[in-house]
Structures are given as C-alpha cells and as structure tokens.
TrEMBL record:
It comes from Hyphomonas johnsonii MHS-2. SMART domains: AAA. Pfam families: ABC_tran (PF00005). Coiled coil: none annotated. It comes from the Bacteria. Residues 7-244 form the ABC transporter domain. This is ABC transporter ATP-binding protein. Keywords: ATP-binding, Nucleotide-binding, Transport.
Length: 254
C-alpha cells in the first residue's frame, strides 16, 4: 500500500438547503484497501459517496481523488478521471429496458471507442467475473433475482476496469447466504484486480468478512476510523453499541 491516499477528504461540508449533512469531515482512503463506511441511517453515507464521485457539490472543503480535485478539471480531464472508478448504487440502478449485457456496455459506449463486437465480448467477460452465468447477459433486470441483479450492477461497475470501486449497500435486501456469496466475490475481486473499495453498508457480517478498515460516520463527520479491533476500543456510545451489541457479538461469535 502506498502512503499517498487514493481519496483525500479535508474539512468537507455538504448541505441541502439549510440542512447540513457533513461538516468538518476528514477522511483518507488508502490504495488497495476495502474500507467500510457505517453509521446511523441518514448520517450521510450515500451523500459522501455522491460527493466523492462528483454527483453532489460540496459546500466547502476539498476532495481529492487520485490526487486531483474534480471541480478543478476541465470536462475532458474529468471524464478521463471518471473512467478510473466504478459505482454500484444502492438500488443497482440498472436500465430496465436494457438486457444485462447492454447495461454493462453502457459505460463502454460512453467512455470508449470500442466497436460492438469487442464491447460484447468484454461485457460478457465482466458478467462472468461478477459470478453470473453467461446467459444472464441476455436477460432483463426484471427476469433476475435480487442477488443476480446486484451482480449485474457489479458487472456494470467493473465495465471500464476501474481502480476504485464504490459500492452502496451491496448486500441490502439479500438473504444471508447470497449476501455472504457477494462478500466473498468482492474480496476476491479486490485481491485479483488490486481494487480499492469504498463500501457503504449496514451489514455487520459484510464488515467482518471484507473490510480492512471501517469509518464510522455520525454527528456530521467521521467519528472514528480503524480496524474492527481498534473501533471496539472507541469510547463512543453508538460505536460501542454497534460492535458490542448483540449484532456485533453475533458476527464475531463472542
Ligand atoms: N437529494 C436530497 N435532497 C435533500 N436531502 C437529501 C437528499 N439526499 C440526501 N438527503 C439528506 O441527507 C441526509 C443523508 O442522507 P444519506 O442518504 O447520505 O444517508 P445514509 O447515511 O446513506 O442513510 P441510509 O443508511 O438510511 O441509507 C439525510 O438527512 C437525507 O434526508
């Protein structure tokens, strides 16, 4: 892992009108790590993700990704930078009128000059990489189970061979076995592709199974960041409850 963070957030403030979501938020994401982002509902996990990828304009502070500040780039430079990450949104956000293969090809069409034949071959490769059977590519999202839809959304997030992957609650709504399969897949992909993963989750099992470090959001900023063992020692009621409460104990078998 290099010392230079892949994402560097300093003194971030975000707001919707008078409603301040983040204030004085600092966070570094290290290259090659899977960092879990947790915190109470509505604390701003998804908004933080959106701010990093440029979908939510910060009210103050700075966000650097790959050493660049998005708002300082011209449109071409920004598109080049955006190609280096993939995002899987909370609901998967697949286009319902496109097949899985066509969904995966959307970013390729937008960002590359690859011809249809190559796009198809690459899309099918991503579909397999995400753990789906090849024939899933010809199906529409409505023909897939929840777990398969998540994998299809993951395949699309991987379409451009990203270095950085953003996953917003990837296991929400999945049964525990399917969720565990997804966790394993994320870990395998991180290892084999050398990805850095920014993973928003409520799922304690996912944290234990996949994350190198965890950042706890609350009170508009990062309350604590560290390994699970480090966070267990943090003297904050929500953090204590999260890791020491019944769900946290069940996940560790303590
Ligand atoms: N488009 C929007 N317009 C106005 N307020 C918004 C918008 N998006 C998010 N918010 C507000 O920002 C705050 C943080 O929302 P966010 O979705 O990031 O929370 P979260 O931590 O991801 O929650 P959850 O765990 O429930 O998904 C909430 O108070 C929410 O109401």
């Amino acid at each position: 892992m290099s010392a230079e963070p892949i994402i560097r957030i300093r003194d971030l403030k975000t707001a919707y009108g008078s409603h301040v979501v983040h204030e004085h938020l600092d966070l570094d994401i290290r290259r090659g790590e899977i960092i879990g982002i947790i915190g109470p509902s509505g604390c701003g996990k998804s908004v933080l993700l959106r701010a990093i990828v440029g979908l939510k304009q910060p009210a103050a502070g700075s966000i650097e990704v790959f050493g660049e500040r998005l708002e300082k780039l011209d449109p071409d430079e920004r598109r080049t930078l955006e190609r280096r990450w993939g995002v899987m949104f909370q609901d998967g956000a697949l286009f319902s009128n496109l097949t899985v293969r066509e969904n995966v090809m959307v970013p390729m069409k937008e960002h590359t000059s690859l011809g249809p034949q190559l796009r198809t071959e690459l899309a099918d490769m991503k579909i397999r990489l995400a753990g789906l059977e090849p024939d899933a590519g010809l199906k529409y999202p409505s023909d897939l189970s929840g777990g398969m839809r998540k994998r299809a959304a993951l395949a699309r997030a991987l379409a451009l061979d990203p270095e950085l992957l953003f996953l917003d609650e990837p296991t929400a709504g999945l049964d525990p076995i399917t969720a565990a399969g997804f966790d394993t897949l994320v870990r395998q992909l991180q290892k084999s592709l050398g990805l850095t993963v920014f993973l928003v989750t409520h799922d304690v099992d996912t944290l234990y199974a996949t994350c190198d470090r965890i950042a706890v959001l609350g009170e508009k900023h990062v309350l604590a960041v560290g390994t699970i063992d480090e966070l267990r020692k943090v003297d904050h009621p929500w953090v204590q409850e999260y890791f020491g409460g019944p769900r946290g104990r069940a996940a560790t078998g303590h």
